[in-house]
Write a structure and sequence with these properties.
By secondary structure, the protein is α/β, with parallel strands linked by helices. The protein contains 11 helices and 13 strands. A hairpin with a 2-residue loop joins strand 10 and strand 11.
Length: 363
């Protein structure tokens, strides 16, 4: 017997088909891009020193030795679900300093090895960066019979997997903080400075952890993790099939940074999602009094924000990656260090890449 009433079943199917379609473009090719992070050095950044944040040399790729990486293959026994992670840490940290932390969620078909340009840079600048792999919607989707790809993508976009991803994020944070408390990481983490971030499907995951509320089968589901103090949403798709997106994201009360591009589009037969979807989510996020910022790059593509090098234009791609990671740190500096001018300085520096920029960050 189908446990879902007809209305809920239709909503689940709408979510699965629309979100699977929306994420195929972002995920396609990630299996070729995902790779283990390479060691690379820069003097670790102390977030409280704004003058060092925007020095020209800080924009370069971290040199070898600025960060270290560790991988963990955790299993949430209560859900019988593997939660692999990769942790980026500064190679050096000031004595007694507690590090801020970013927990990152990948897009569909990704893995813990992806978005390494962010993890490397965050760690080289004094942050810990925990990249979570979601086994129900990770790179395994690209393996196996190619004729089954659409059905695998559809299954990965079901509401059950969307909710499981949010639980993955909170579980990984639980385990990391347990290790830190036991002294097993060799560093201290600052529980007052924890942010979540994600791209595409990972942005949906991040929104759930940040306080977005969805209704399924007549029940409002709240996945908010109160330890998350800020959220970075890259190419965030709407919550298709789960009621009005504005209603879903209005409860988000923590500061959010939204990053997109005018070419952040998904086009497949019978389906289109453009930058307007990302901007509408930004407008609705947290209501009228929300603390939030919006970055819109010129041109680009939906998958430009992954590790892939050939998307969004050969010359534009590395520049946008550089600007994206710096925008994230400027935003976090504003939230955690009350450095509210950081994003304004970032805008001045990267103005030539921008189509739009807004901010209403509050202390």
């Amino acid at each position: 017997m189908d446990p879902n009433p007809p209305a809920a079943q239709r909503a689940s199917l709408q979510w699965a088909l629309a979100l699977a379609a929306a994420l195929i473009a972002a995920g396609a090719g990630l299996h070729t891009a995902a790779r283990a992070a390479q060691s690379a050095p820069h003097t670790p950044h102390t977030p409280a020193a704004p003058a060092a944040e925007f020095a020209p040399e800080a924009a370069a790729e971290p040199e070898a030795g600025a960060y270290t990486t560790r991988t963990f293959d955790w299993t949430d026994t209560q859900r019988a679900r593997a939660v692999p992670v990769r942790l980026y840490l500064p190679a050096q940290a000031a004595a007694g300093e507690a590090l801020p932390l970013v927990v990152f969620s990948h897009g569909i078909g990704g893995s813990r090895d992806g978005y390494s340009y962010l993890g490397r840079h965050f760690a080289a600048r004094g942050y810990a960066s925990l990249h979570v792999q979601h086994v129900g919607s990770d790179r395994q989707l690209w393996r196996g019979n190619p004729f089954g790809l659409v059905s695998r993508l559809t299954e990965a976009a079901q509401p059950a997997e969307a909710l499981a991803r949010a639980r993955d994020l909170s579980y990984a944070l639980d385990r990391l903080l347990e290790l830190e408390q036991r002294g097993a990481l060799g560093v201290r983490l600052d529980r007052a400075r924890i942010a979540a971030a994600g791209h595409s499907y990972g942005a949906n995951t991040t929104m759930l952890a940040a306080g977005a509320e969805v209704e399924l089968e007549g029940r409002v589901l709240r996945m908010r993790d109160p330890r998350i103090r800020a959220a970075i949403l890259i190419s965030a798709p709407p919550f298709y099939g789960w009621a009005d997106p504005a209603k879903i994201v209005a409860p988000v009360s923590i500061p959010t940074l939204h990053i997109t591009a005018t070419g952040d589009e998904i086009r497949i037969p019978g389906y289109f999602s453009g930058v307007s979807d990302r901007i509408e989510l930004y407008r609705a996020m947290g209501g009228a009094t929300a603390s939030k910022a919006l970055v819109v790059f010129k041109d680009g593509s939906h998958s430009m924000f992954t590790d892939r090098a050939g998307t969004g234009g050969v010359s534009l791609n590395p520049a946008v990656k550089l600007a994206t990671r710096e925008a994230a740190l400027a935003f976090l500096s504003g939230v955690f260090e009350r450095n509210t001018a950081a994003l304004d300085r970032w805008q001045d520096r990267y103005r030539a890449l921008l189509s739009g920029f807004e901010r209403s960050l509050r202390q």
